[in-house]
């Protein structure tokens, strides 16, 4: 990245942090995304981290994180980042499958991706893993294997970004020529729901599903499972799968399901699309109640 855009980014960051400080808005986390942070010149990494630490010293920020590629990490650099105040590194793995990585021209292998994640942990930094279902040459089975590998690496958090075909990309050419078929929403939601269940059961937070709904990006999407409520749809279906398992274990038609109030807006899914599924479990709307407790309870 050229110095001028970096200068502008640093200036914008300083203004935003100052605005938050003057508004008495505290305890934020700051994340350096949108580029391969560890691949820009080290002096610029130092400047961004120094500015973040300045405001952390004032009490405005609680944590500093960045995202990067697996092949832009070394033990020495990670140790330096930890000394400079970085708390967490999210590794844009995308997949651990060599065939998918090669077809996607990622220029690293699955073993290099695993090693990069281990290096982050060994440096004493929190680890995040970013996965991308729908890569060329991948399948649902490939993605779920990636989730298994992620669980073995025990990151603090994961992000799941289904691949989208964007206008002007090389993938657009492949898609138009029939060399690539994008995942549909109907297959993606159940796939991500299974992934979420696996990650949750291993104590791994899923902190993002799908890209943020930015207008310019949305206009350039040609194919792929984009939906503004993707995260809600996936979480709701994952909860349904979990409750379905417990109903089966109960061995009888349940008389009541108690749901923590914080899930009231999503238990039935987007547009109450899961209402019939719950009815199939014997859980009609009048059998579902909401309470202040943090646990679900099936009676």
* CATH fold-level assignment of the largest domain: TIM Barrel
State the oligomer: single chain
| Average of pLDDT | 94
The total count of helices amounts to 11
Count of extended strands: 11
- Just name the CATH architecture of the largest domain: Alpha-Beta Barrel
Q: In sequence order, what are the helices and strands, one letter per element? A: HEHEHEHHEHEEHHEHEHEHEE
Q: Which bin fits the share of residues in helices? A: 40-55%
Strand order of the largest sheet: 1-2-3-4-5-7
The CATH homologous superfamily of the largest domain: Aldolase class I
Report on the structure:
Helix content is 45%, strand content 17%. With 299 residues, the protein is of the alpha/beta class. The protein contains 11 helices and 11 strands. It folds into 2 domains: 27-228, TIM Barrel, CATH 3.20.20; 252-298, no CATH class. The mean pLDDT is 94. The strands form 3 sheets. A 6-stranded parallel beta sheet has the order 1-2-3-4-5-7.
List keywords for this structure.
single chain; three-stranded mixed sheet; 299 residues; TIM Barrel; 11 helices; six-stranded parallel sheet; alpha/beta; globular
């Amino acid at each position: 990245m050229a110095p001028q855009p970096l200068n502008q980014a640093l200036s914008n960051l300083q203004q935003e942090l100052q605005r938050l400080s003057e508004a008495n808005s505290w305890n934020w986390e700051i994340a350096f995304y949108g580029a391969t942070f560890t691949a820009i010149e080290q002096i610029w990494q130092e400047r961004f981290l120094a500015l973040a630490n300045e405001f952390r010293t004032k009490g405005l920020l609680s944590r500093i994180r960045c995202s990067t590629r697996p092949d832009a990490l070394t033990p020495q650099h990670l140790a330096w980042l930890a000394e400079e105040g970085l708390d967490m590194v999210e590794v844009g793995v995308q997949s651990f499958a060599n065939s998918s990585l090669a077809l996607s021209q990622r220029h690293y292998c699955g073993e290099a991706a695993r090693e990069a994640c281990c290096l982050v942990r060994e440096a004493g930094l929190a680890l995040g893993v970013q996965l991308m279902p729908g890569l060329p040459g991948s399948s649902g089975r490939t993605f779920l294997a990636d989730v298994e590998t992620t669980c073995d690496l025990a990151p603090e958090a994961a992000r799941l970004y289904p691949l989208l075909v964007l206008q002007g990309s090389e993938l657009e050419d492949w898609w138009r020529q029939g060399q690539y078929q994008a995942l549909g929403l109907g297959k993606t939601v159940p796939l991500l729901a299974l992934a979420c269940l696996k990650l949750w059961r291993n104590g791994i937070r899923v902190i993002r599903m799908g890209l943020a709904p930015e207008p310019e990006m949305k206009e350039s999407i040609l194919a792929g499972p984009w939906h503004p409520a993707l995260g809600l749809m996936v979480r709701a279906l994952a909860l349904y799968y979990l409750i379905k398992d417990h109903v089966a274990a109960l061995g009888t038609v349940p008389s009541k399901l108690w749901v923590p109030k914080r899930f009231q807006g999503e238990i039935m899914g987007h547009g109450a699309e899961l209402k019939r599924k719950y009815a199939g479990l014997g859980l009609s709307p009048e059998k579902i109640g909401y309470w202040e407790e943090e646990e679900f309870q099936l009676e």
